[in-house]
Specification:
InterPro entries: Kinase-like_dom_sf (IPR011009), Prot_kinase_dom (IPR000719), Protein_kinase_ATP_BS (IPR017441), Ser/Thr_kinase_AS (IPR008271). It catalyses: L-threonyl-[protein] + ATP = O-phospho-L-threonyl-[protein] + ADP + H(+); L-seryl-[protein] + ATP = O-phospho-L-seryl-[protein] + ADP + H(+); L-tyrosyl-[protein] + ATP = O-phospho-L-tyrosyl-[protein] + ADP + H(+). It is built from nine helices and nine strands. It is an alpha+beta fold and 319 residues long. α3 runs antiparallel to α5. The N and C termini lie far apart (44 Å).
Length: 319
């Protein structure tokens, strides 16, 4: 196994694995932080334009705040990526901004409104506020999801993934906390901090980033799967685990209330059979999850294929 020696501290709920790549200077493209944004009421954003109202969360080296634009009183989410003087972190942040810019017209991806650099060197990303929180929060607050609700979640996330994959972008960190909902019950993909614009070969996406519990088998042991992994099919595996968790109320490879352990999760994902839904799940839902959780990445359905699955179609009159 390629990563057995890189065990992380087990106290974290879902430990993450850093992407260790060569560090090099990242030049700042001219005017990259200037964003024409009529919704913010200015041509160039700056730290003084916003009033912080609350901390919404932390993740991937950043803090997300609820903020108010001082002129327009519009409420936004502001993600501040810390330590962006580090070349690797800075490069990732610029890549995240670029991906968000490219996805502004997709209704199932959190909308990007602009970005700016703080005097400290930290980079801030202004996005729409998803005021109903994440699916992780909904699971903790309201309990498990019905199949009807999961079909809606799956359809909207797959719309977002289909959009990204068609543009050679792999998200690489699909999980309940990165899928957000607003007060219109719209479901959108968020947090592109470890996402990747893939090249013409799968080698461009060969790295261990994201949350290890939701990683596909080939992410842990690429040698056993031809030396590479497909970032698109890895997103589908993560989606399958996410839907499974929302249905049963706990992570599929753990018993309810069991604390995660990095090495145990890795062994379970790589060497155990994919988890099976309980008999209470419909045959359509069971088959849908099985199509996501094929151990061989080439056997998993694509996002476009899954959008035609009977589990999603049975609630739609047009199908």
């Amino acid at each position: 196994m390629a990563l057995v020696h890189r065990r992380r501290h087990p106290n974290l709920r879902l430990p993450e694995i850093s992407d260790h790549r060569p560090r090099f200077s990242v030049p700042l493209p001219p005017n990259i932080y200037k964003q024409s944004s009529s919704s913010a009421g200015c041509d160039t954003l700056s730290p003084g334009d916003f009033e912080k109202l609350a901390v919404l969360g932390h993740g991937n080296g950043g803090t997300v705040y609820k903020v108010r634009h001082k002129v327009t009183s519009t409420i936004y989410a502001l993600k501040v990526n810390h330590n962006d003087s580090d070349p690797t972190t800075r490069r990732r942040t610029l890549a995240e901004i670029n991906i968000l810019r490219r996805a502004t017209d997709c209704p199932n991806i959190v909308k990007f409104h602009g970005s700016f650099e703080k005097p400290t060197g930290d980079i801030a990303i202004l996005m729409e506020l998803m005021d109903s929180g994440s699916l992780e929060t909904a699971l903790k607050t309201n309990g498990t999801f019905s199949e009807t609700k999961l079909a809606t979640v799956a359809r909207e996330v797959l719309n977002g993934l289909s959009y990204l994959h068609a543009r050679n972008i792999a998200h690489r960190d699909i999980k309940p906390s990165n899928i957000l909902v607003n007060n219109k019950n719209e479901v959108k993909i968020a947090d592109f901090g470890v996402s990747k614009s893939m090249g013409r070969t799968l080698e461009a996406c060969n790295s261990y980033v994201g949350t290890c519990a939701y990683m596909s088998p080939e992410r842990f042991d690429p040698e056993a799967y031809g030396g590479n992994y497909n970032g698109f099919s890895a997103d589908i595996w993560s989606l399958g685990l996410t839907l499974f968790e929302l249905y049963v109320g706990h992570f599929p490879f753990l018993q309810s209330g069991q604390r995660p352990d990095w090495a145990m999760l890795m062994c379970a994902i790589c060497f155990s059979d994919p988890p099976s839904l309980p008999d209470t799940a419909s045959l359509e839902f069971q088959d849908f999850v099985e199509c996501c959780l094929k151990k061989e990445s080439g056997e998993r359905w694509t996002a476009a294929q899954l959008l035609t699955h009977p589990f999603l179609c049975k609630e739609m009159d047009s199908c």
